[in-house]
Design brief:
- The chain is α/β, with parallel strands linked by helices.
- The chain is 41% helix and 22% strand.
- Helix 2 links the parallel strand 3 and strand 4.
- Strands 2-1-3-4-5 form a 5-stranded parallel β-sheet, sandwiched between helices.
- The chain has one domain: Rossmann fold (3-Layer(aba) Sandwich).
- The two termini are 12 Å apart.
- It is globular.
């Protein structure tokens, strides 16, 4: 599965990418020209809500999974309004994607 992983935090990127790669995912960079099969976006990334809207327009058929602090219900609601298909707490994003990968 090709995953466009939109995250600014290097520690999160490194930790999460390694788990998904081990499960067989191909992680795309923000500037990739490949069409993703899934977009995963950190709600604490710069302009995350605007990026969700832009990515929804570019890839209307692709699921967008947004993640952030579990205590920020307002951000989850805004992410859905911006076009996110699903929203999950930061601590659950790795497992949610691994389940989608069948792992």
């Amino acid at each position: 599965m090709k995953i466009l992983f939109w995250v600014d935090d290097l520690m999160t990127r490194t930790r999460v990418e390694s788990r998904w790669r081990q499960a067989g995912a191909d992680i795309l960079r923000k500037n990739s020209e490949d069409t993703p099969e899934l977009v995963v976006i950190d709600l604490t990334a710069a302009d995350a809500l605007a990026q969700i809207g832009r990515l929804r327009e570019m890839h209307p058929e692709v699921d967008i999974l947004a993640f952030g602090p579990h205590v920020d219900g307002g951000a989850f609601k805004q992410a859905r309004a911006a076009g996110a298909t699903n929203v999950v707490a930061r601590g659950k994003v790795v497992e949610r994607v691994l389940a989608m990968l069948g792992k």
